[in-house]
Amino acid sequence: MIDPLSDIIALLRPHVVLTKGISGAGRWGVRYGAFGHPSFAIVVEGTCRLAVDSQKELILNAGDFVLLPTTPGFTMSGFEPVTPEFVDPHVAAISTGEVRHGRQDGPPSVRILGGYFIFGGADSALLVSLLPGQVHVRDAARLSVLVKLLLEEAAQERPGRALVLTRFVEILLVEALRFTQTTDAPVGLLRGLADTRLAQAFRQIHADPARSWTMVQLAKEAGLSRSAFFDRFMRKVGVPPMEYLLVWRMALAKDLLCRQKIDIAEVAERVGYGSASTFSTAFSRHVGQPPGRYARSSA
């Protein structure tokens, strides 16, 4: 069966860049600037506060997992009043070894394992915009095992390391996003996938993106009237159905142009356009430049 979430993660092409340990003790607090790349962390022991910009503040306890698909600015601290120390995330990203905040000696009040990675897909920004800004999973035993395996693999230079790390991150993303794929998830892709009727329309789009889908056809796949389908899709996903179809087609087109070096006429056919000229017009309107120029600049 077609799995839209797996399709999207495969197209995002995540790969690990850095993993490290973080701990805090005594009176401590740090304020990280916006980073832009996805990051993750799991609390190994202790507890702390996490306040991500535009998101609900969290109290993190041992076993909690957090994923930030775009890592905006955030503040992390203990529970004593403190003026947070500013940290440039781009400078912190190149440091190695465990980072200790606050009191440097004695046992930590919290210990965290985490890291960040990069999406290698050509259209990651559009796809990531459909994901929640913050994923928080409590008592994430399976995710804890994955993070520890990932860090263990990252610390060693063994044959096949890059492939193993990439697969671990893909599994980590799927596992984390599964927990958010609920009917009360934030408006976006995961909330739409949790709706059994909308999920059927998603599967059809992903199974056959080249088909000349209409709103009526997609509504029929979902077992809804045209108006009910449109309203339900907008309310749960946050974009109109045909806009999601366009986003997915353009993401596929960018991938085909960049990675597989397929000519424009074949790309047009694969993503549902009757001619190369019609596809070029749509692509230029959506991306801001013709497909040929986009392919050359990406190369």
Would you mind describing this structure in some detail?
By secondary structure, this protein is α+β, with helices and mostly antiparallel strands. The protein has two domains: 4-180, Jelly Rolls (Sandwich); 189-298, Homeodomain-like (Arc Repressor Mutant, subunit A). It is built from 13 helices and ten strands. The protein has helices at 4-12, 89-92, 124-128, 141-154, 161-180, 189-194, 196-207, 215-222, 226-237, 241-258, 264-270, 276-287, 291-298, and strands at 14-25, 29-32, 39-52, 58-61, 65-68, 74-77, 85-87, 99-102, 110-119, 135-137. The two termini are 34 Å apart. The mean pLDDT is 90.
Q: Which key terms come to mind for this protein?
A:
299 residues; alpha+beta; Jelly Rolls; Arc Repressor Mutant, subunit A; 2 domains; 13 helices; 45% helix
